[in-house]
Structure formats: structure tokens, C-alpha cells
From TrEMBL:
PANTHER family, per the entry: ACREF/ENVCD OPERON REPRESSOR-RELATED, TETR-FAMILY TRANSCRIPTIONAL REGULATOR
Keywords: DNA-binding
Organism in which the protein naturally occurs: Latilactobacillus fuchuensis
Lineage: Bacteria, Bacillati, Bacillota, Bacilli, Lactobacillales
Domain annotation HTH tetR-type: ranges: 3-63
Protein's UniProt name: Bacterial regulatory s, tetR family protein
The UniProt record lists the keyword Thylakoid: no
UniProt GO molecular function: DNA binding
Ranges of the DNA-binding region feature: 26-45
InterPro entries on file: Homeodomain-like_sf, HTH-type_Tx_Regulator, HTH_TetR, TetR_C_Firmicutes, Tscrpt_reg_DhaS
One Pfam family recorded for the sequence: TetR_C_8
Keyword Transferase: no
Gene3D superfamilies: Tetracycline Repressor, domain 2
Amino acid sequence: MSYITQKKIAASFKSLMLEMPLTKISVTTIMTHAAIRRQTFYEYFPDKYALLAWIYDQEVGEYVDDNLSYTHWTLILEQLFQYFDDNRQFYQNALSIEGQNSFESHLLQHVRQLVNTIIKNMITNQGITLSANYQKFLLNYLSGALVTYTTGWLQERQPGSVEQVTTALKMTLTDTLNGLLLRTGHLQ
């Protein structure tokens, strides 16, 4: 029952964030909107910022973290961008929040896991050796670029379609990795 209640509280909060800024949303407002007694909120979250973090980690995690071991990264990227497109208004409002509960910092955690998996799979599948420093550089660079691009795309007035964006991102990531393989003599 607890996960269902959390999802209901989160859905109420997301709905309210489509109508008003975070600063205007109180726990009372969330719970009244959800038709759940106010005290129930505190059984799951200490405050609305923890709820916001839970939404980021739960929903983005469903697309990234939960699929890393059995879904190809290109499909994860497509599904993630479709989710963002479907929830664009919520994330546009969420992008105005700065600090420890910023969307970018939560997204970066998940994207780092995705990029790390891509790098590790390439190393394993191609049998190449990369220094720990270069692996760290690749992880930071590619993750940062992907987060920056994603947040920019979410804020565009007329963004490219999910298909256009994911096609370009997949080509860019693949070309980057193929360039590395070519340079190291693992791609002829």
C-alpha cells in the first residue's frame, strides 16, 4: 500500500506543479488535492523537497537504473526522452528549482550510471584498456554533455521531436566511442 500512496501523493504534486510554482505549493495543498489526510504525507516524506527528489529518482530511475542490466542503452535513451517529452511542463517548472533539489543534480546521477554502463560495456566487448583517469574523464564529459543537452531541450519552445533528438544523441555517442576505438586500434 505504501508505494501506491507515494505514487498518489507524487501524482498530486506533479499535477499542482503544472498549475503553480513550487513556492506556492504546501504539504496541505498537495494532500488536499490528493484527497488524503495531511499527516499521511509525513509517513513517507519529511517535506515537499524530499517528495520532489523522490519523483526525480523514482521516475527517471524506472527508465535508467531499472533497465541497465538488460536493455540496450539506445532504447533506454529513447524511453527516457519520451518520458521527458510526456512530462515536459512538469520538468520545465522543476528546472527553475536550484540547489540540492535541482533536477539537474538528480538527472546527473542517473545519466552517470547509464554512461558508465556504456563505457564498461565498450571496454569489455572491445577488450580495450583505458586508464582510470580517462574513464573518469569520459564519464564526466559525456554525462555532463547529456544532462546539459537534455535540460536545454526541455526548455526549448519548439524542441526537436523525441526521434530526432535521440537519433542525434545516439549518433554522437556512437561516433565518440567509435573515435576512441579507432584511435586505440580496436576499430578498423
